[in-house]
TrEMBL record:
Pfam families: DDE_3 (PF13358). Residues 133-232 form the Tc1-like transposase DDE domain. The lineage of its organism: Eukaryota, Fungi, Dikarya, Basidiomycota, Agaricomycotina. SUPFAM superfamilies: Homeodomain-like. GO terms for molecular function: nucleic acid binding. This is Tc1-like transposase DDE domain-containing protein. It comes from the Eukaryota. InterPro entries: Homeodomain-like_sf (IPR009057), RNaseH_sf (IPR036397), Tc1-like_DDE_dom (IPR038717). It comes from Pisolithus microcarpus 441.
Length: 303
């Protein structure tokens, strides 16, 4: 006979009829139960005073994420569907004092039907009542969470706005020169930046700040710029190929900064984590390059 749940009143009725003098076969035929079940119910009744066993004292670990927290996270994703899992973990730690890994959080969200899917972006400009304090798409995210069967919709700006370009000189101690312009750098503007802001802070080789390293960008390969550096007689000039990714410390630093900017949403007030680039970060990049013996191959001195 396959398993089927039997109510407590039916169990008590079977035991009562058995105690009243009914034959066990008649009880089984009338109630549709087995004789083994009747013997088991009578034994449980004699041991515990009830036809059901008491709950076992050995229970598993209490659920960390309660139903109330799941409801709060659903409301959070409905307002900010592009939140990252690590940001939700930080929110749980700060707001609710719960330490949860991203893998555990992912399994919990999947169990309640909050799946990861591609974001469907809605233009915020089409709604006159929607106001945004940003006019660019630097922080755009592509994936979010939403209940199964529903789209993860995010209001975002579709107008890129004003474009700015940053040029900076990076050393192991940090930045020594930086300049921001509206638009894109051209050859002449980059030449002026090197001549006016970088060269005055450089020293004769092999002192500190004595090697100028550039990648082979089109605006960098300028004969006038090479002549300017050579005539200054203060430093050495060298190009690094763009495909030599390990050598291009500025490019690696740009990748890290871009990932941090993308991970820190500008419109979010839930968590505000300050990200500061310490000189040790840049020194760490230089140590990675040195460990791969690129210094010896290029015979350059990073200062």
């Amino acid at each position: 006979m396959p398993y089927r749940p039997i109510s407590n009143d039916l169990k008590e009725c079977a035991i009562c009829l058995w105690g009243s003098g009914w034959r066990l076969e008649d009880i089984c035929d009338a109630l549709g139960v087995s004789s083994r079940s009747c013997y088991r119910w009578r034994q449980i009744l004699e041991e515990h005073g009830s036809v059901n066993r008491p709950p076992s004292p050995l229970t598993g670990h209490a659920q960390t994420v309660t139903r109330a927290l799941l409801t709060a996270m659903e409301d959070l994703f409905s307002e900010h569907p592009d939140l990252y899992l690590d940001e939700i973990c930080t929110w749980l730690a700060v707001k609710h004092d719960i330490d949860l890994s991203t893998s555990s959080l992912s399994r919990t969200l999947n169990s309640v039907g909050l799946s990861r899917k591609m974001l469907q972006k809605l233009a915020s400009e089409r709604n006159e009542l929607w106001h945004s304090d940003k006019n660019e798409r630097t922080y755009a995210r592509h994936y979010g969470h939403a209940p199964c069967g529903r789209r993860a919709q995010l209001r975002d700006v579709f107008v890129r706005g004003t474009r700015y370009s940053l040029c900076a000189a990076l050393t192991t101690e940090g930045y020594i020169a930086s300049h921001v312009i509206e638009g894109t750098y051209d050859t002449q503007q980059f030449y002026d930046f090197i001549a006016e802001e970088v060269l005055p802070q450089m020293n004769p080789f092999p002192a500190e700040h004595s090697v100028l390293i550039l990648d082979n960008c089109r605006i960098h390969r300028n004969d006038a710029l090479v002549e300017l550096v050579e005539n200054a007689g203060m430093c050495r000039f060298s190009f690094v190929c763009t495909n030599q990714y390990e050598c291009n410390i500025c490019r690696v630093h740009h990748q890290v900064s871009s990932s941090l900017f993308t991970g820190s949403h500008p419109d979010r007030r839930i968590i505000q984590l300050p990200y500061t680039f310490h000189p040790n970060l840049i020194t760490g990049f230089a140590n990675i390059v040195q460990s791969r013996r690129i210094y010896d191959a290029m015979r350059l001195k990073f200062t």
